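[Discussion] Sanity-checking designs against the backbone

I'm trying to build intuition for which residues belong where. Below is a structure token string of 319 positions. I'd appreciate it if someone posts a full sequence so I can compare it with mine line by line.
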């Protein structure tokens, strides 16, 4: 297949639309994580990275490690739209026998490393960047992390190593949507002040609106004024693009079910669809999605709102 020319805006929308379809068909999860990272992935593949779709193992290609591998649907959608494999294969996502596993897989052309065990991606990317620097190769290595996985000690070991060896060919991005798994990050293990933490590890640090393509492209093109790795903290909104999924932890593990959930998700995406893009699944959208009047879709579904530890009594037999 030939590489397709596509704008980052168009690609971001298609990533979101494909991901709704993929998780809907497979009954897989992590749609909100895909939605928050879609703009970052789109800018990387449409504007920043060097690669060849007809030669996925081209030695001088830029490497990209999606450390938050549970958002792998975003990578699959980007690779398909860029021409690495047929877009129709996306419908097999998470199905028995499919190479498009729920967490991103290196068996897919264009994927450099299988991820899913959080906290490993930056270490792998650091090793790739170190090997490239030692051998005089000029490609760059990009790593996209989730904010929750920054709780992992391996992330900070990699941060120290990358600074020690001045790996200016390493660019990491944190998808800082402020939520992880079952709750807000600040109520799990607070990351703030995240910018200061990365600066104290010697990295060049930039903070941007992670759903703004101009800011992302500028940050990814300018890697600081000292020979050191670069960290881009991208402030995003979990579930971005579909209002009833935004900032609601329910959609970390949930998929758009048949009925109003799927219909409303498609309708919301069609409200922001670029004119230059066609919806490959529902070209006309869903004109009148039926949302039950009593649908509990805007409530806070975080554990901090629904779990009441004071209502439980710890007995001696529980110890």
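Best answer:
Here's mine. Compare freely.
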């Amino acid at each position: 297949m030939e590489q397709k020319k596509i704008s980052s805006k168009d690609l971001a929308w298609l990533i979101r639309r494909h991901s709704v379809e993929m998780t809907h068909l497979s009954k897989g999860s992590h749609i909100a994580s895909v939605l928050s990272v879609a703009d970052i992935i789109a800018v990387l593949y449409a504007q920043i990275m060097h690669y060849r779709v007809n030669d996925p193992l081209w030695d001088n290609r830029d490497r990209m490690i999606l450390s938050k591998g549970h958002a792998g649907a975003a990578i699959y959608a980007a690779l398909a739209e860029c021409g690495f494999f047929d877009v129709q294969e996306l419908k097999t996502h998470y199905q028995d026998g499919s190479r498009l596993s729920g967490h991103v897989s290196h068996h897919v052309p264009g994927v450099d490393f299988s991820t899913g065990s959080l906290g490993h991606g930056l270490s792998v990317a650091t090793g790739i960047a170190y090997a490239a620097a030692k051998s005089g190769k000029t490609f760059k290595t990009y790593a996209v992390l989730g904010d929750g996985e920054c709780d992992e000690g391996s992330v900070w070991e990699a941060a120290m190593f990358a600074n020690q060896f001045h790996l200016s060919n390493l660019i990491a991005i944190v998808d800082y949507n402020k939520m992880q798994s079952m709750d807000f990050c600040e109520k799990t293990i607070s990351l703030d002040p995240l910018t200061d933490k990365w600066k104290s590890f010697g990295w060049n640090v930039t903070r941007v609106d992670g759903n703004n393509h101009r800011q992302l492209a500028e940050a990814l093109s300018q890697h600081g004024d000292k020979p050191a790795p670069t960290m881009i903290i991208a402030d995003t909104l979990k579930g971005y693009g579909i209002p009833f999924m935004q900032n609601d932890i329910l959609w970390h593990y949930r998929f758009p079910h048949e009925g109003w959930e799927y219909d409303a998700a498609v309708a919301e995406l069609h409200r922001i669809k670029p004119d230059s893009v066609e919806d490959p699944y529902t070209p006309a959208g869903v004109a009148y999605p039926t949302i039950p009047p009593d649908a509990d879709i805007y409530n806070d579904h975080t554990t901090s709102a629904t779990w009441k530890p004071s209502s439980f009594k710890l007995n001696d037999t529980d110890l």
